[in-house]
# Entry
Amino acid sequence: MTNFRRSIAHPTVLIWITLAFLFLGGALTLTLFSSRFGYDYRIVEMPVLWLAGGLIAAGLIYQALPYMVLQASTKQPQHSNRILIIIIAAGLGMRVLLLASEPTLEDDYQRYLWDGAVTAHGISPYKFSPSAAIKGTAATPELERLVTESGQIVHRVNHPDLRTIYPPVAQGVFAFVHWIAPWSLTGWRFSILAFEIVSLALIIQILISTGRSPLWSALYWWNPVVIKELFNSAHMEAILVPLVLGALLLAIKKRFISSAFFCALAAGTKIWPVLLLPLLLRPLCRSPRALALPVIIFSAVCLLAAIPVLLAGLDQSSGFVAYAQKWQTNSALTPALDGFIRSLLETANLGGEWSSLLTRICLGVILLMFVIFMSIRDVRDPHDLIARAGLIAAATLLLSPAQFPWYFLWVAPFLPILPLFGLTALTATLPLYYTAFHYQSFGNFETFKTTIAWLIWSPAWCLLTVDFLLSRLRRHSRIGAPAHTAGDTG
# Structure
């Protein structure tokens, strides 16, 4: 007991305990004040700037974590087990505290609850929009009954004229949760908690496989954006994270068929993980026979997932079509590139109406080129695989026309392996997104688009440039070092 007390009283452990209480206090504060964001309040009455400020403060404190982990894992390894217990317990506590919170400035969960009910009752959510169900134009008695049963939920679904955008794997989870806890936000949040526990276990396993300390899991488990977007806002990215991590861990273990299957499930949850397949299967490129079966399985699962979407039709009422053509939110790069292309078209007397499409094509081509670049070289080791996958996820986020804070969940699971300055900094800048509601409610949204959006993303781009330059310097230093030195550091 004396040794235990002495270890708890060690300055390193005390710092971790202090930081844990700071984050727990932040989660409790958000829960207590979240009622001010209920449907009874107008946005102008909500403490929007206080929310953004609090999240930014948490994000700034979070920037100390990589240095704390580095010190604890290298200079104080004897305390690692106790610090890991603190990390896991405090992160779980933050999540549990937010289970009772009112979602702040987010309502996507209303669509999840509605889609889950529709799917659970054997109706395709890709066939009818919520507004069609409300108006009775769907001509389905079961839908009319669900409209009544849902209460206010179906009436609070955003973009009600659009049919759902969430792929079939996500719909299966929504339906399962509805079957267990119908129309329940709390039930949905408990399912998120279950997914998160699996994600943490996978992150720790990946860290062990790559030779890194499990303490690095704190960069995900204590991330304020992750915790807010999953347990307060209740976003469905929680389903995606363990599927992506599972695909990567299986690839590390050279179980490529299973890896391709999990990658397909991830793509059936949120389409972008299809970009990871070339990297996952890169070790099989010299063996076409071994490559064939994983590709066939991946293609078959993706085709099965696409069938209900295609059967329902891809017209202007499809959420997939609307997202691909029009969605542009919280991005600084996309409108800047759009404006540049528009000016070129107008200068050439070609008209500027094609600028949006050409912008998306340009961004898509850049992303595909980056994926090819990341996938074309041999994978050296598990760390190299995870790092490259993280860079693909980061590029997908940074080049996306829509850049919601919860899309950071695509990148956050890679932070324990890839703690780049430019990526960790987003934890402090992304909460500025919520100021958009403030500016919009006061009729000054242009300020957000022209100024705040750049404040969100410019630090990330600048720091990623610094990260790149530092990595080049380290590489040149290793190349120029004497043979015995390079061997020692390797």
Q: What stands out?
A: The chain is about 70% helix and 0% strand. The longest helix spans residues 445-480.
